[in-house]
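Sample intake sheet
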Amino acid sequence: MRSSGRNSRGSGSGSGGNNYRGAGNRRDEQQQRAGRPRPEERRYDVGGGSQAGPGPKAGPKGGQGGGPKGGPKGGTAKSGAPKGVGGRGRKPNAPARPREYEAQMEERNRARHDKPRVALPKTFGEVEGERLQKVLARAGMGSRRACEELIDQARVEVNGKIVTEQGLRVDPEKDEIKVDGLTVATQSYLFFALNKPAGVVSTMEDPDGRQCLGDYVTNRETRLFHVGRLDTETEGIILLTNHGELAHRLTHPRYGVKKTYLAAIQGPLPRDLGKRLKSGIELEDGYARADHFRVVQNTGKNYLVEVSLHEGRKHIVRRMLAEAGFPVDKLVRTAFGPIALGDQKSGWLRRMTNTEVGMLMREVEL
């Protein structure tokens, strides 16, 4: 019985000792395995090197990988920790993603952004056009509130229909907008009136270097051109615009836009001079007739007369008066259609009002 008990105790202690040593070996193996670099880390240099500081204790002396003790003194055995761990001021490098994974992510991002644009219903998309009161305000008809009042007063029409509701959206480039029967010019067109001084050539560029109309509009973003011409020595109003159709109609004989001139001549004048000019003066290129004639001022032999006509032939006023026997000393154009020169100083350029532009358009049926 004693021997059996002793044997049992011996076997128990022996089995317990073996189990303890086995657990310790497993623990060492686990620590060694834990210190080894993972497969994705083996692509890079993970050795601590001789410069590495004191890291966690590694395995047996001279052993490779991490453990309770490090490698031999001054050795170059590779450590199980990533490069830089335990070093002075170095941060561990995060393992990079495989190239295949990066390529898949890039393909997914491209597929996400390269999807065809979905056509949304109009209720969810951008509303086309601009609000009518905003277009009117930008055209110079007043503030937005004032333009809303114009709409409430039924003074605005779009494409021939009077607008009575607020918030109507229009296309300023395509829709015809009128206020009180006058066409509203959109922001894409420019209209200027210049009081041309004597000696300025009626061209936008002059190859001889003389002063021309282009010198007054050199800082404009849009290219402008002049409507008709004035003699070099003739002063007065001349229009500049970038509206091609309007400029064409203003100079076309079919529409007969009237031009008014003041001419300084020497008298005395016969009473029938106006009648002769209205009935027609024969010139080398045909008859020329005045629409209106009157004496504005008379001081001794000096006369200032006003002549209106719708023709636009070269030097037409000077030639008519010279043929009648009264050469012109000075000539000024004071009006082009409904646009008057007024008190505008010589050499001054001004932007025409929207009302003036509307009157011009109505003159030529635009």
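Comment: Helices lie at 2-35, 99-113, 132-138, 144-152, 244-251, 273-279, 316-323, 354-363. The mean pLDDT is 76.
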